[in-house]
Design goal:
356 residues; alpha/beta; FAD/NAD(P)-binding domain; Alpha-Beta Plaits; five-stranded mixed sheet; 9 helices; 15 strands; 29% strand
Amino acid sequence: MKICIAGAGLAGSLLYYFLKNFGFNVDVYDPGIIRGCRSLNFVFQNKEERSLFKKVCKYLNVDINDYIVKEADLIINDKKVNKCYIINKTKFVENVLPRTLIIHREYKPMSSVMRAKVDGLGNLIKEYSSEDHGKDYKLIVDASGVSKVMQEKKFNDDIKTCQFIIRSFKKIDDYIIENISLAKGKPLLQYFWITPMVEDGTYHIGCSSYNMSYIEMKSKVLEYIKEVFGSGYDIVCNCNNVINGSLMRESRLGGIYKGRAIASIGEAGGLISLLGFGNVYAFISPFLLAKCINKYGIEDGIIRYKNLVSKTFSYLDERKIALKRCNILKVPKILKESLSISMSDCLELMMKSYLY
């Protein structure tokens, strides 16, 4: 029984490991050189998320301390919220699924193929037909993040990001999130961030925005870097990207489509917080999918997985919908609970989004 995973980032690599341990035959497709996309490290925001990572590491038979690089204070709008944990994602993903086991090309579920034939009069006729090159797979799992390769529709709620990796002699130990703002009618928050990386003196800096163009974002991030670090920094690299803003209910979390069993995990399934964070869901969703498939079989298992994830993480859609509708009763409460933002600051953010 063959299973295909489209995407070899954090979620896809973990799913591969779990399914192989259960005895399934698995192929993984990923055309990228850098796996896991937006950064070379990831952050757990509190002890509960760290505890989850610890449990997954125990299941993987690895030592959590091999991957936790440093602890940092999470600072949101100049206020210390809690401790967070910087994890070496590159090392973790490579150990779970070595790149030598990846099929290094994009998985395209439907590809147009030109065929030629000769009619009864000897005329050459060209015609196009759809050929599914994954017809041998019993299940295809979308772990492609924002690419969402298994979705027929693309949604316009994805948020743009502009990101830099820099080196500087200035030492910053905190994970900083600031300049948070709302975009009217959109499900994710806009903000600037600074994350200390694996290597001391190296930082991941960027912003997310619905309202600015990439050119404007690059200019703003460079101004932000100069404001924080002065002239004492070197740019290692920069890129533009997006974060999936789709709701879970818009995503193919699990089901039978055109006779094919399909499921989504991690960011591809809309499992993203208001700030675009998805690490904790990239850990738990492949574990849940693998357990359901192993216990109940593929078709029944993916339906159980879909129902379980939809129920367990229903708050993600509820929060995004409240943000999109700028619900004046729900948004302040959500931002206070999830980001420790005061009620007065929440109301100010909402007023600005209405006036934009």
